[in-house]
Design goal:
By secondary structure, the chain is α+β, with helices and mostly antiparallel strands. It is about 65% helix and about 15% strand. Helix 3 links the parallel strand 2 and strand 3.
């Protein structure tokens, strides 16, 4: 009887041991499968990140090229427009012109305010235009002496020409598309800048009536 009981215990121990070994093997197998999947997913993520980086670089290159082409196109259009304006001016005929300068009691040094004397001159000009319009076009040039920097003189010349344009539009309703404003600053003097009288002559606005 004792021998039979002992044999039964041994069989049970062997069965339990065999079951434990099978469970460990199963776990190792499953862990290995999970590790393989994680490795595969990691590789896929890295490939996706690399593709994303390459796509972003391509998009950046395309954006840069588009910007470059746009800038080149804009510069080309501006160049063509300037050339067209030059041709248009060259083909127009000067009918008459009015010069508004400081030596005639008009623009003061570094100022762009339109004096009463200048308004009178412009009123006469408009009266002539009304009498003989002929599809006239008005070009308004701003000039200065050479005192100060070229940049400042360009700005003052433009402000003086704009003051004349504004007066013609607001007071006489001359259409804006019939007027063109340009500043030459100190680039086109009509008298020496080394004398007081010469500088006064150079501080001027020239209003040209063209057809």
């Amino acid at each position: 009887m004792r021998k039979a009981l002992w044999a039964t215990v041994m069989v049970a121990l062997v069965s339990v041991s065999a079951g434990a070994c099978a469970t460990k093997k199963f776990v190792r197998t499953r862990v290995g499968e999970v590790n393989d999947k994680v490795s595969t997913l990691s590789k896929s993520v890295e490939e996706t990140q690399e593709r994303t980086r390459q796509n972003e670089q391509r998009i950046g290159d395309v954006d840069q090229r588009v910007t470059q082409v746009a800038d080149e196109s804009k510069a080309g259009i501006e160049k063509v427009s300037l050339r067209a304006e030059e041709i248009e001016r060259a083909t127009k005929r000067l009918v008459y012109e009015v010069v508004i300068s400081e030596d005639q009691g008009n623009f003061k040094f570094a100022k762009s305010d339109l004096p009463d004397e200048a308004r009178t001159e412009l009123d006469r000009l408009v009266e002539q235009l009304k009498a003989d319009p002929q599809g006239a076009f008005i070009e308004i040039e701003g000039h200065t002496d050479n005192v100060g920097t070229p940049e400042v003189n360009k700005r003052i010349g433009l402000e003086r020409a704009e003051a004349v344009k504004r007066y013609l539009y607001e007071t006489h309703q001359v259409p804006l598309h019939k007027m063109n404003v340009i500043t030459y600053g100190e680039e086109k003097p009509i008298a020496p800048n080394d004398t007081r009288d010469g500088r006064a002559q150079n501080r001027r606005v020239v209003v040209k009536v063209l057809t």
